[in-house]
Design brief:
- Helix 9 runs parallel beside helix 13.
- The radius of gyration is 21 Å and the shape is globular.
- It has 379 residues and is an alpha/beta fold.
- The structure holds pyridoxal-5'-phosphate.
- The site of pyridoxal-5'-phosphate has 14 residues, from helix 3 and helix 4.
């Protein structure tokens, strides 16, 4: 079975991990900072705080940006549930903004309408979280113009988009946002096994995020409230979990990051192979956008029923595909919280999309075979 995505691990990754295993620090050692430094270098962000999952990165970013019980966060319904869950875990209310029908990304026009209504009802959100779906960045310039008008901060969920570009800068530069979060799950652009990061240009947010990944403990004496303490002292000004990334994972992440451009290039090449080979009538293909990180190659069938039978047909031939995503507002948990919300563009997109296999080592023969099955099934 060929899955829709998978990691690319080589000997240099094995050596990086083995070096840590032979060292004095399996966790809380120098690899964590080295990975953070490398992420800043790559993205242009001033600060990086690595954590043990993309979900933890969202929680920490939201909390460090000031989201709390009674607060409000708006995001895209076409995302992994973690984007919304992290806000609910902080006691905030989540709501969803409809998407652009061809990219599936949060739609600035839908946002403008929703903001205007919320302003009139005195119910504006504290945070807006655009998600760069499949690796194609959102229109952050338009979204941030709206957010600024209402004094709302943006956090980017860039779990799909490390290695891509947004408005001419690397994703993660936080050109328009207070922070950007990443995931290093094995299907993503690079992997640390599990892992995530918060990127930001805001030194205070980075400091708080660093605290929040370590139980809320402040390790730097310069920031202690109580001065003149003995060497064994430490101070806990906030409440946090253990969201630390181990040095073993950080070493793998840093080793992978050194090959990120190669990974994106390899994925892009396969996206072009698909674009050449797919020719079924009514099939919508993703735009061959130069900013794309190509985390996923998501096609859209003309009809939902075609998508579901195509999923089965590909599976029968040994190809795994996936739906990114069943809309979050239609999950049982969110229907119980929010009632039944209508977001027609998101529902329409989600009923027709399918992510085909795409990863750096995928042979051209397999891409062509997948395309043949799709063309045959939909033709
Ligand atoms: C858009 C998005 N947000 C958040 C996450 C959560 O990341 P993780 O699985 O590393 O916790 C994922 C990962 O699946 C994701 O795709």
């Amino acid at each position: 079975m060929i899955g829709y995505s998978r990691q690319s691990v080589d000997d240099s990754d094995l050596e990086a991990v083995a070096r840590v295993l032979k060292s004095d620090f399996l966790t809380q050692g120098p690899e964590v900072e080295a990975f953070e430094h490398a992420l800043c270098e790559y993205t242009g962000a001033a600060h990086a705080v690595v954590v043990n999952s993309g979900s933890a990165a969202l929680y920490v970013a939201y909390a460090a940006a000031g989201l709390k019980a009674g607060g409000r966060l708006w995001t895209s319904p076409l995302t992994f549930v973690a984007t919304a869950n992290a806000a609910v875990m902080l006691g905030a209310e989540v709501d969803f903004v409809d998407v652009n029908p061809s990219t599936g990304n949060l739609c600035p026009r839908a946002l403008a309408v929703k903001l205007e209504k919320a302003a009139a009802e005195n119910a504006l959100p504290d945070l807006i979280v655009p998600v760069h779906l499949n690796g194609l960045s959102c229109d952050l310039s338009a979204i941030s113009t709206l957010a600024e008008r209402y004094g709302i901060s943006i956090i980017e969920d860039a779990s799909h988009a490390l290695g891509g570009h947004c408005a001419g800068r690397p994703v993660g530069a936080c050109q328009y946002s207070k922070a950007t979060t990443l995931s290093f799950h094995p299907v993503k652009s690079i992997t640390a096994g599990e892992g995530g990061a918060v990127l930001t240009n805001d030194a205070a947010l980075a400091r708080l995020a660093t605290r929040l990944r370590h139980h809320g403990i402040e390790r730097d004496p310069e920031f202690w409230v109580r001065s003149g303490q003995p060497g064994h002292y430490y101070e806990q000004p906030d409440l946090g979990f253990n969201f630390r990334l181990s040095d073993i994972h950080a070493a793998l992440g840093r080793s992978q990051l050194s090959r990120l451009d190669h990974f994106v290039e390899a994925r892009k090449k396969r996206a072009h192979w698909y674009a050449e080979a797919l020719e079924a009538p009514g099939l919508a293909l993703p735009p061959l956008d130069t900013d794309h990180a190509w985390h996923l190659y998501a096609i859209r069938c003309a009809e939902a029923s075609q998508r579901d039978s195509l999923f089965q047909a590909l599976r029968a031939e040994g190809f795994g595909t996936a739906v990114h995503y069943p809309p979050v507002h239609r999950q049982l948990y969110y229907e119980k919280r929010l009632g039944r919300i209508e977001l027609p563009q998101a529902e329409n997109y989600a009923s027709r999309c399918l992510s085909l296999p795409l990863f750096p080592g995928l042979p051209r023969k397999q891409v062509e075979r997948v395309a043949e099955i799709v063309n045959g099934h939909l033709g």
